[in-house]
Amino acid sequence: MKKVIVFILLLLATIPQQLMAQVNPQKGYIITNENDTIYGTIDYLTDARNVQACLFQKKGETEYKSLSPSDIKGYRLADDGIYYVSRLFTGGEKPKLLFAEFLLQGGVSLYRYYYDDYNYFGFVDDNGKEVIIRNDNLNNDLSTYNQKLQERRQKVQELNALMYQDKTIANRMWKMNLTSNDLTELVKQYDEQFCTYAGDCIIFKYDKKKAAAVTRRFYVGAGINYAFYEAPDDNVRHRTEFSGNKYSGIAPTFIAGADFMFPRFSRYFMAQLELSYTPHNYKASEVMLEGGNPKMSTNEIALRFGASYAFSHNRRFIPYIKGGLHIAWNSAIKEKNVVFMYDYHGGEPQKTTGDLVFDNELRAGIYLGAGIGIGHIRINALWKKAKSSFNCLNEKGCGILTIAYLFK
Length: 408
Known about the structure:
- This protein is α+β, with helices and mostly antiparallel strands.
- The protein is built from 7 helices and 20 strands.
- Strands 1, 2, 3, 4, 5, 6, 7, 8, 9, 10 and 11 form an 11-stranded antiparallel beta sheet that branches. Strands 12-13-14-15-16-18-19-20 form an 8-stranded antiparallel barrel.
- The radius of gyration is 31 Å and the shape is elongated.
C-alpha cells in the first residue's frame, strides 16, 4: 500500500515536467519579411515563450524551426486565432524587438506586449506615435503606491493627448481595468467615432480556449460500486462490541467532477477533481458468530484528486488512464441485526443480538483507473483502497464502474 502511494505521489510530482516537455501544435501561418504567407503548424505555448520566438513547422516538413521577431513579420493561429506581429517594445529599460499581440487595427491601433512578467498595452495613432501603459494595479503598499500613482497619471495624460478628440478618455481610464477586452472596446469606440477616415477598425478575435493557460470542463454521471468491508474481530479478546463480520455487495454511486486541461503545455495530460456519493447497504458475506440477519449501511462522500493521461486527441474514441489520491467521509455507519459478544458490567462476555452504531470516519487512500471517451460520453472503471485511522469498519477494496456526460 505504501509503495503504491509513493508511486502515485511521484507521478503527480512529475506532471509539471511532463507538461513542459510536451508541445501544443496548432495550425497557423507565418508572414515573412517579404510579405509571403507560409502555412504549417505553430507550437503555441506560454506568453513568455510566444513573445520571444515562434516555433514553426512548414507543411511537408518534420522539424520545428525557431523564428525570432527579426526573422519574420508575424504569425497567427488558424481560424482567426491569436495574432502576433514583430514590434519594437520601448516600455522597458531598453528597446527590445518582441512579438506583440495585435488586438485592434484602426485610426488608433492597440497592441499587447508581455515583458518581464507584466502586460503592457501600446496605443499607436496613424502617425506612428505610441503610448505604452502597463497593467500594474495600484495597491495599498505605501512604499510603491505613490510611485505607481505618478506613473499612471503621466501615462493617462499621454494617452489623453493621443486620443484628444474624446474628452472622457482620462476619466474612463482611471475607472476601468487594464485588460485586453476593456481596452479593445475603448479604442474601438474611439475609432468608430473619430477615425472613420481610416475605414472600419479590425478586431483580431481569437479562441480564448487556445489562449488560456488552463481550461476546464465539467461532467456528471452515475454507476455501480462494488465494495468489501470488514469489521474488527477484537470482540472476544478485548470484550468490545465489534462483530468481526465481513460485508460485500453492489451499491449505486453518483459522481460530479471537473477536468483541468493545459492546452499550452499538453493535449494529453490533465488534472481531475471528482466528488462522489455512495449509499452502501450490504448483507454479510462472512459471519463470525451465527445468528441474526447481519446488514451493514453507511453513506460515503468521497473526493478524488489526480491526473489523467489520454492516448489520443481529437478522435472519436479516446482511451485514457488515471490515478491519484482518494479521501472519503463515511457517516451513519451501522451494523443491523448482528450477533456480537458484549461484556455486561465486567462479567463474562455474552452473545447479544442487536445493532452496532459506529462513529463517523475519515478515510484516505489511492485510486487507479482507466476508461474511454466517446464524444460527450465517458465510460470509466476505477479501483480504490482507503484506510481509516480508527478501529472501525475497514474497507478492504472497492471497484467502481461509471458512465458520465461531459459538458464541453
